[in-house]
Amino acid sequence: MDNKRRKLLGGLAAVPFMLSAKNPLHPHKQSTPKTRLQYSVNAYSFNFALRNGEMTFFDMMDFAADIGLNAVDLTGYYFSSYPKAPGNNELFRLKRRALELGLNISWTGIRTDFVNPNAESRKADSEMVKQWLEASSLLGASIMRIYAGNHDHAGYTKDEVKDWLVEEFKTCARYAETTGVIAAVQHHNWFLLESDEIIDILKRVDSKWFGLILDIGSLHSKDPYREIEKLAPYANYWFIKEFVNPLGVKERIDMKRIATILKKESYQGYISFESLSKDGDPKTIVTSMFDAFRAEYDKLSE
């Protein structure tokens, strides 16, 4: 083989590596500006109706399809088997209905408490994560929400508790890799309250199978939008809610600022709308948030 041909083949071999390389400071940022957003709704929006039997996951899917969403988030504790994972028959009926409606089941979520000082309890939660990751994979979900937890850890420093978190999250990431479903922490007003400490945990776990669900309503600094912007490069999934909470004071969301952050980040992926309001019709609230976000986002694309 002549030298010219060797150089050409050598250069081509390097192309896939260059194309796949990521900026380590912005792990989810694309090298070229692209946006492809998909929209979902979280089951907690219908918490009361799902718990009292007025509504089922199938009804929720019908609603999502009717307003033009792409997916649904099926939270684990609305399955009757919870905390045990549901059987295959139940999972596959939901999966089939989603297909009939042209929806994805993008997300599942369970409660975990890795802040608990009891090591056996933390281990049990890790085992539950494993079981639900397997169920999520069968359901077709690509990501599953877990929590840090909110247990009383008197007698232990926050740094000590963070060590527990990192250890358990690494275990969850190993389980996640075997199922093909990302295990992702949602900060959710519990324990991890600032963007810098959330990013620190993500870096310490250091796994492609452990991620972040960016909850815009659970950052209580003076400027939550600045905190959201700092977390945006690390987000695998977004939760948009009606309110942000600067210094713990509830304030209606500025949808333009959220759309601008997403646009600047060139985010591609799912945005889920979640209503926490106890007043008003959740279907109306979710539809309004969906329409408001798209209106602001579309303005930025004009």
Features:
302 residues; alpha/beta; TIM Barrel; 8-stranded parallel beta sheet; two-stranded antiparallel sheet; globular; disordered N terminus
Overview of the structural elements:
- The protein is of the alpha/beta class.
- It has helices spanning 3-20, 47-52, 57-67, 88-101, 119-139, 158-179, 195-205, 224-231, 255-265, 282-301; strands at 36-41, 71-75, 104-109, 143-146, 182-186, 210-215, 235-240, 243-244, 251-252, 268-273.
- The chain has ten helices and ten strands.
- It has an eight-stranded parallel beta sheet with strand order 1-10-7-6-5-4-3-2. Strands 8-9 form a two-stranded antiparallel sheet.
- Helix 6 (158-179) links the parallel strand 4 and strand 5 (182-186).
- Helix 5 (119-139) runs parallel beside helix 6 and helix 9 (255-265) crosses helix 10.
- The longest helix is centred in the middle third of the chain and has 22 residues, at 158-179.
Q: Separation of termini? A: 52 Å
Query: Radius of gyration, rounded?
Result: 20 Å
Counting DSSP E segments of at least 2 residues, the number of strands comes to: 10
What's the CATH architecture of the domain at 58-244 and 255-274?
A: Alpha-Beta Barrel
User: What do we call the CATH topology of the domain at 58-244 and 255-274?
Assistant: TIM Barrel
Number of helices: 10
Strand/helix succession: HEHHEHEHEHEHEHEEEHEH
